[in-house]
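Section 5.1 Outputs to date
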Amino acid sequence: MSLLINALVMSCAAFVAMLLLAWLAYADADRK
């Protein structure tokens, strides 16, 4: 059970990181 929660947290963290990177890239392209 704890392993499942750990995997869920890791996938959520990866999704948030990808979203943040995409937002940063978009903001950087928008500034130019």
